[in-house]
């Protein structure tokens, strides 16, 4: 794409699904990007994600999101309506939902709904398509990666912008990197996000305690994950000191490991 508007070849690629495109805008109302746009068209309005069709993590994550969608939509995530692909682009078109980002701060009324959707994700049977998606992102930082293994479908991309609160339901969007691993990992990631949002580690773990997967976890496995995650974010934040959000994650994981006396 060039600038804020998809290039003509991109629009030609999706036209069989959208019909004539009448408007392109950012999901947040600002400038659109090459990755995600809202497209208003002859056949409706679509949330559209696109990546260049070349080997790499972005292509792999979009293909994984397309593969998992039938197992998480429509109950947990918006339905993928269509997929378009040529030598240049891979494009996915989703239903548009009316929802807002969850509030993770202390006292937020959204937190029970956040816990509920994590429990609903945990309750999903592992789809056969995900059986080969072993979670390994923490392995390089873990003393014993076996603690992180399991047969649960993991969402892993937990933060307020991805857990959306609608009028009648909560949505988990952007399934860019679902994996197979220990079920407690998603609640543990929520703990880190809650600490970063201002909760004490104890308060964050109290919310995680409402998650079935957290209560079923071996405390040694949670400790192993906390240590690995703290090491990971420390490494990332040292490499990218200009990224404030990485610094926030490093600080949150440091608070968490200190609370657990690790």
TrEMBL record:
Output the InterPro entries linked to this UniProt entry.
Answer: Kinase-like_dom_sf (IPR011009)
User: What is the recorded name of this protein?
Assistant: Phosphotransferase family enzyme
